[in-house]
Every structure is written in C-alpha cells, then in structure tokens.
Design a protein that fits this description.
Blueprint (H helix, E strand, L loop, with lengths): L1 H30 L1 H4 L14 H13 L15 E3 L4 E3 L12 E3 L4 E3 L3 E3 L4 E3 L3 E2 L2 E5 L5 E3 L3 E3 L4 E2 L4 E2 L3 E3 L4 E2 L7 E4 L4 E5 L12
Parallel strand pairs: 1-3, 2-4, 3-6, 4-9, 5-10, 6-11, 9-12, 10-13, 11-14, 13-15
Antiparallel strand pairs: 7-8, 15-16
Bound molecules: coenzyme A.
Coenzyme A binds next to strand 15.
C-alpha cells in the first residue's frame, strides 16, 4: 500500500510539472507569435485557439493532409466528414483532440469555447435501416457556448445541447440537453444544475 501511495504521489507530481511546462511552452510560443503567425493563414476558423496547438497539428494536417481541407486544427487520429456543413464559434475546434469522429452530413452548429475530450463522436445522420447506403435527413446537431463534452461521448443526430453544459465521460446523448446543467450517462440525463461559466468569454473575441 505504501509503495502504491508513493508511486501515485510521484505520478501526480510529474503530471503537475507537465501541465506547468505546457503552460510555459504555450506562453513562450505566444510571445514568439510574430515568427509563427503565418500558420494561422491556413486556419481561417481557428479564432482563439492557442498557437501551440496549431503548430503541433500543422504538419500532419496541412502538409500530410490528414483532414487537410478543414479550416480549424484537427488531430491526425480524428476524422471530420462534410466539414463545410459545420459552423464553429471562437475557440472551438471539433476533432482537435485524438480519436474524434465528426460526421456533419446533416449539419452541425457549434458555439464558442467547445471543449471535446478524446474519442468524442458527433454523428449528424443515421443510415436507413433497410438500406445502409442511404442516409436519413435530420435536423442539425446544435451545441451552445461553453460546452465541455467528456471523453468517449457520442452526440446523435438532431440533438441540441444548450450553453454552459458539461456532458460526462462516456455519455450517449440521444435527446436535447438544456443550458446550465451537468448531464451524464447512457442515455444522457441531467444530474444537476451548473453554476454560470466564469472563464474567458470567447464569444467576444
Ligand atoms: C461529469 C463530471 C464532470 C461530473 O463530476 P462530479 O461533479 O465530480 O460528479 P460526481 O463524481 O459527484 O458524480 C455525481 C453522480 O454522477 C455519476 N457520474 C458522474 N460522471 C458520470 C459519467 N460520466 N457517467 C455516468 N455517471 C456519472 C456518479 O456516479 C454520481 O452518481 P451517484 O450520485 O449515484 O453516486 C465527471 O464525472 C466527468 O465525467 N468528467 C469528464 C472527464 C473527461 O472526460 N475528461 C476528458 C478530458 S477533456
């Protein structure tokens, strides 16, 4: 037990250092933005996204062309389909974290400051049950401002998620979720109200 505690403490310390290092690196890159700012020309819809993330994803995306035509930064393990049907607000880059899957056949509207954990899926269209080559029409997925979608969650077609919402990890969002709540589970249900968001107001950039 003692050694377990010791290892945990060490791991915790390491991760705290890593986060601090990341912040330092982010600040350093932002200070040198006059050298790197040209990369933003490749990302017309990345307002508010830190330059460090854009630089990290630039080579796989814009040189090796993994999701190369998407105008916001996307991780090379993620997949964005029908990106022209996606509207994104400031500091929102669906697919920027690993293993995302965003299918926007019926459209997806996203507000400002969306945080998507790894492995999240946004799936706007279903296959027809008796012919999988046909996709069914549905209303677009709509996601408000200041929404955090936890790791491995899936949002299904036609769903609206309000503003200032947390969706718990591994949730399956099949129905609309109102604003100012925390919702979790499969199917995703509201578990409590959420206080107002106090971070940066990215809608005003
Ligand atoms: C949603 C979340 C933020 C809630 O955290 P919290 O406020 O501390 O919630 P609690 O741990 O107090 O849980 C409250 C209840 O909801 C349940 N619950 C919490 N998260 C859940 C989830 N993702 N799925 C199902 N049930 C969940 C808990 O079991 C608990 O149930 P109980 O009251 O019956 O015991 C957190 O659980 C979560 O899922 N975080 C996502 C982390 C993530 O994906 N990060 C990715 C990096 S971006």
């Amino acid at each position: 037990m003692v050694s377990f505690g010791y290892i945990s403490d060490k791991k915790w310390e390491t991760s705290v250092f890593m986060i601090q290092d990341m912040e330092k690196l982010k600040n350093r890159v932002e200070r040198l933005s006059f050298i790197f700012s040209w990369v933003r020309l490749f990302y017309p819809k990345a307002k508010g996204i830190p330059l460090l993330f854009i630089l990290y994803l630039f080579v796989p995306q814009k040189i090796f062309r993994f999701n190369g035509s998407v105008p916001w930064p996307v991780h090379f393990t993620s997949r964005i389909l029908f990106h022209k049907n996606i509207k994104v607000g400031n500091n929102s880059a669906p697919g920027m974290t690993a293993n995302g899957y965003v299918q926007a056949r019926n459209g997806i509207q996203i507000g400002s400051n969306l945080r998507m954990g790894p492995g999240v899926g946004l799936i706007s269209a279903n296959h027809k049950e008796d012919d999988y080559d046909i996709h069914l029409k549905a209303p677009p997925i709509i996601i408000g401002d200041n929404v955090w979608i936890g790791m491995n969650s899936v949002v299904l077609s036609g769903v609206t998620i309000g503003s200032n919402v947390v969706i718990g990890a591994n949730s399956l969002v099949t129905k609309n979720i109102p604003s100012n709540v925390v919702a979790v589970g499969n199917p995703c249900r509201v578990i409590r109200e959420k206080k107002c968001y106090k971070g940066i107001d990215y809608t005003r950039l």
